[in-house]
Fold:
Amino acid sequence: MPQGSGRTDAGVHALAQVASFTTESTIPPENFMKGLNANLPGEIRILGVEEAVADFHARHSAKAKTYRYRIYRAPICPPFLWKQVCHHPYPLDEAKMSEAAKAVVGQHDFTSFAAVDPDKARTESGEPVNNVRSIFLSAFRREGEELVYEVRGNGFLHHMVRNLVGTFLLVGKGTLAPEQIGEIMAARNRSANPGATAPASGLYLVNVEY
Structure:
């Protein structure tokens, strides 16, 4: 069975998804790519296929991932973009959002930014799931009419990036102060975070490192 580098929610985009599978087939890798692209729906394209070492796993072998979130700031969102961005034309203090984004860099417990998944709260052995992750980059930048958030880390929890963006938007609106991000993180409880889960349409998986 193919194993992806991670799950993506409905509506989330993957520019660089990686999948691995085991096969006894003698078909050359380049022919796998041709055959898959001939049969997959147009929304999915295989950009490359290569033979990996026996113990390679698309998810478990990953060292870091980078996600990007696109917020379209102009009053009118072009019809060609509305499924590719989160449209937010309302006033935002982008400088404060940038300040808030820096607060999550480092190793932290991100339970306050994770989806509440009762079935995934414990491992198969009954131990609590470890929600500690290391974030290497967390920053906003302007690209024309878009405010782009980019985050790189060694792993991400379910809905983590979308919940980070939803919380940063509250900072931009003035509902939260940048320094409250640390307090929310320290609570280790999703109910302590008033930030909504940002729409899936703006989120992209852009890189997986091995």
